[in-house]
Amino acid sequence: MIVAFSVTPLGVGEDVGEYVADAVRVVRESGLPHRTDAMFTSLEGDWDACMDVVRRAVAAVEARAPRVSLVLKADIRPGVTDGLTAKVDTVDRYLADERHLGEG
Questions:
Q1: Handedness of CA 57, 58, 59, 61 (dihedral sign)
Q2: Choosing a second label site near 37 at 20 to 30 A (CA), which of 2, 3, 13, 21?
Q3: Would you state the torsion angle of the CA atoms of residues 33, 36, 16, 59, taken in this order, to the nearest 10 degrees?
Q4: Confidence of residue 80 (pLDDT cuts 50, 70, 90)
Q5: What is the pTM for the complete model shown?
Q6: List of residues 6+ apart from 2 with CB closer than 8 A
Q7: Which DSSP state fits 11?
């Protein structure tokens, strides 16, 4: 499964990077495949492992913020591995094919 999630501290002001770093640290230390971008962190693993990391990431922010917002989206597809890379590779392949269509 792939889980994309965002943990946002509320009530701490506008600059939340330090709090978000606490959550991302949990993800990076988990050992699960992951990616972090400007809006979400995605991680891949089984249900229990992913939900444990999300829970601990929220707890890390919650330890320092009076309120926490969690946005979570999951792609539950048993038997699929390396989805973080494979999904992007598929899109890139289609984009590359489109570039070659005009060359002939």
A1: positive
A2: 13
A3: -20
A4: confident
A5: 0.86
A6: 42, 43, 44, 74, 75, 77, 83, 84, 87
A7: S
Q: How far apart are CA 81 and CA 46, in angstroms?
A: 10
Decide which of 8 and 98 is more confident: 8
Contact (CB, 8 A) for 7 and 58: yes
Residue listed under structure tokens 């060359």: 103
Can you tell me the distance from the alpha carbon of 8 to that of 23, in angstroms, rounded to the nearest whole number? 9
56 φ/ψ sector (left φ>0, alpha ψ -120 to 50, else beta): alpha
Beta bridge partners of 4: 42, 73
Tell me how far apart the alpha carbons of residues 52 and 59 are, in angstroms, rounded to a whole number: 10
Tell me if residue 81 falls in helix, strand or coil: coil
Strand partners, 68: 9
